[in-house]
Amino acid sequence: MHLVACRAGDATWALAYAEVADPARVAPALTALRAAAQANLGGTAQRLGPMQVPGMTPNPLAERLRLQGKLPGGEPVTQELGLFSRGTWVFQATVMGAKLGNEPVANFFESIKWPS
Hints:
Blueprint: E1 2-8, E2 11-19, H1 26-41, E3 44-50, E4 63-70, E5 76-86, E6 89-97, H2 102-110
Antiparallel strand pairs: 1-2, 2-6, 3-4, 4-5, 5-6
């Protein structure tokens, strides 16, 4: 698993990705990423809808989620994440912070594209 992350404003922005080598492992990997994100915050998950990235491989597990939970120190946190795949690559795009602005989060997810 690879992770690229940065902190901007009051939020952490990240993209994690891995090559799972076998198409049969894509769905279990997406399911595991979702479960791990929820377990890390110990909170609730709300499905926001399907994750749409031009050029991605269609998958019923490609979705956007909002998680509410707590950091290890007990501070409340919100995490929005998008799960998707392309071929045998799985991806998790994440924004996490105490308060998330709707516009910056929407811009982040809408900006995910494959290079031309």
